[in-house]
Every structure is written in C-alpha cells, then in structure tokens.
Amino acid sequence: MVEAVLTPEQEGIIAKVEKLFALAKNNPNENEAESAAAKAMDLLAAYNLDMASVGKPQGSNRKDTKLKGGLYTWQRNVWNAVAELNFCKYWFIRGPAKGQAYEHRILGRVENVASTCVMADYLQGAIERLAVEYGKENYPGQSRFIKSLIIYREGLAGRISERLRELRRERLNEERRKQEEARTRHSHGGFALVLADVIQTEDDLNNDYLMGWEPGTTAKNRAESEARRAKAMEQYYAEVEKQQKYWDEHPEEFARHKAEQQRQYEKWEKENARKAERRKTAVTEKKPSRAEQRMNDPNYWRGYQKGNEVGLDRQIDNTETKRIK
Hints:
By secondary structure, the chain is mainly alpha-helical. The protein contains 10 helices and 3 strands; from the N terminus they run H-H-E-H-E-E-H-H-H-H-H-H-H. It folds into 2 domains: 227 residues, no CATH class; 61 residues. The C terminus is likely disordered.
C-alpha cells in the first residue's frame, strides 16, 4: 500500500503530542507532569473531531505500523488499550520459527498511530521503572526478569489498561451528556458530531484499509446488515402478533398448548437435575489456570495498586495521584 504522506497540520499535531509526553516523562513538577498525558489525549480527541466535522477525507493517509516488541502479555495489553483510546486497531504477530521476535501492529490515521506509539512507549517505560524500583526494594540482587517482577508488571499494566478504558468511557459519557443538553435546549436543528461517531468511523476505515476495500465499504456493509436485521425483526413481531390473534380466537387450543409446554419444561428440568447430580459426583478439583495463578500472586495486586499512581487523568478514580518521575 502507498506510504502515507504527512501534511504540515499532521506533523504539527504529532509534534505537540510528543512534547507533552516528553514533559510527562521528564518534568519534575508533579502537577504539570500529572496533566501532560491527559492534555495529549484531549488534544488528539479534539483533532479527530475537528477533522471529521469539517469533512476532511479520512479514508487515505492511514498507516499500518510494525514495531518490534510485545514479548510479554502485559506489554501487549497496554499497547492495545492505548490504540483503542487513540482510534487505532491493534494486534500482534510472532514469526512462526522458534526464537522469532514479536511485533506490535498498529493501524490508523498517521497522526493517531504516531501518538499511540509515543503514549504506549511512555506507559511501558513507566511500568518498567516502577518494576525496577519494586525489585530493588523486595528482591535485591536478583534479575529484573524474575517471575515475581513479571507478575508485578502484569498487575501494573492491568490497572493502567483499565484506567485507559475508563477514560474512554468517561469521555463518551460526557459527549452523550452534552448532546442531551443540546437536545433539551433545542440549540440547533441537528446534532453535532460526537466522539462516538468518530470512533465508529475510524474503526470502519481501519477495517477497510486492512481488508483492501474502498473507504466506506465496512460502514455500508454494516448499514445493510442492520437493515436486514430490522426487516427480520419486523417480520418476527408480525408473526407473533398473528399467532397471538389466533390464540385469542381459540382459547381451548391455547390452554392445551400451554399445558404441553409446561410438561416439556418439567421433563427438561428433571433431566438437567439428573445430569447435574452425575456431574457433582464426578467432579475433580480444577487446577487454576496460569492467568488465575498469577492473579492470586500478591505481587500482581501490589502492581495493580501501584498502577493508580501512573497519571492519566485526574477525573479517573476521582483521586489526586502522584506522578512518577
């Protein structure tokens, strides 16, 4: 596919995002560093809304970026959550041969992909620094890649990923609130484009790019599918209404029908009870999965709690959290 060419406007938005995350990483002032990451995300969301609202073409200037990394699950979880927040599609790949490297794959508008890489790299670095500090305190002299510290990173990444998704939900809820207020005030004839529209549009266009389709194909297919589903539901409710009318006209037949239904239900219930009893006598103790074992490790939950200290946005958790330096 043709390599996307950056416009001066796109270069400008990427440069601003990079500067804000550099501030978040290096600024010794806790309050300023705390808000830098949130400002970067707000800037990117506003930019995407502006581009969509003025009708800028969005099918082109997309990029499918490959970056080495993602060996650990916690890394992939963070990159995936950041990509979702920044209107991108994320997945990872690994070469088929033993020892081949993992790769992050990020697909989206050029400026969204660049911002995702900056933010995910920042958060991954924050997790790594906190894990190293935790290891020095609790496992002095040991490798930073021991199992306990990997689990600690998983807890950190799990909480940070949750908070990123909470941030996205909060933004969407705020947009819906504003839209409802506009509806109540009758301030304009139509409704302004909201973040949910941009998220859906970007997701559709990313899928078009990935599949090699013309821009707009995914949206068209979904609209056609929804129309077919609506028609099927209309036919279903018409059949239900027709059947109900028949039962109303034939009450004795309806009574026999209900009695037969009840008999079949009681038969099914007895059979299920017998199966449940047999399963109960044959049950063996289930061994916890690898993921369950790790989540039962106290290091996971220590990391999870520490994840509240990586500043994303003051609105999340409704708490004042300290920025790592």
